[in-house]
Design a protein that fits this description.
The complex is a heterodimer of chains A (113) and B (116).
Chain A (H helix, E strand, L loop, with lengths): L3 E4 L2 E5 L4 E7 L3 E9 L6 E6 L5 E4 L2 E5 L5 E6 L8 E9 L8 E2 L3 E6 L1
Parallel strand pairs in A: 2-11
Antiparallel strand pairs in A: 1-3, 3-8, 4-5, 4-9, 6-7, 7-8, 9-10, 9-11
Chain B lengths: L4 E3 L2 E4 L5 E6 L6 E8 L3 E9 L2 E4 L8 E7 L2 E6 L8 E8 L10 E2 L3 E5 L1
The chains are: A mainly beta (113), B mainly beta (116).
Chain lengths: 113, 116
Amino acid sequence: GQQVMQIPQYQHVQEGEDFTTYCNSSTTLSNIQWYKQRPGGHPVFLIQLVKSGEVKKQKRLTFQFGEAKKNSSLHITATQTTDVGTYFCAGLAGGTSYGKLTFGQGTILTVHP
Amino acid sequence: DAGVIQSPRHEVTEMGQEVTLRCKPISGHNSLFWYRQTMMRGLELLIYFNNNVPIDDSGMPEDRFSAKMPNASFSTLKIQPSEPRDSAVYFCASSSIQGVGGNTIYFGEGSWLTVV
């Protein structure tokens, strides 16, 4: 079945440093979504990417979808303590209906002040 | 608007007992998902419904787990009998899926289950 791998598993940064997490799928995706889960909280939708090579920005967050639609990345510029949490990518296999997303294992980000 | 509502938020039960988790999806959403989250296995999709019909239950661990969606505003996930390895956070989520393609999934706050 479809697999979505996410690296790194953990990332510790000093406040102000940049952070990147990568997501790779075993199959071509029709779209990919990113979620953030704060400690003790629930996953919250951040963004969805649909087009090959698409790049979207949300303030300090930059999301990219690979040309082959099999990988994606999330980059945070100048991290802040409020960025702490687990970032998940979730991919939808091409042609799949009903929105059956496959989640990556997540990257746990800690930010030291 | 109210989000996805789950109950109970926390439950501690003894091995062998029946556990029932409840979920009220966002009004108007036609898809409902049950996920389980553990440190070891991450976020796993157990089952999802579309228009109250179970579409894919391949993630349900074993026969001890069952899920129902009797109407558009209510779903249950039942574990009987429960075992310590079932300890996890169980998330219910809903979405408005139309046709092929993905839509935003809205998660509830989760039910934290501990089986001792």
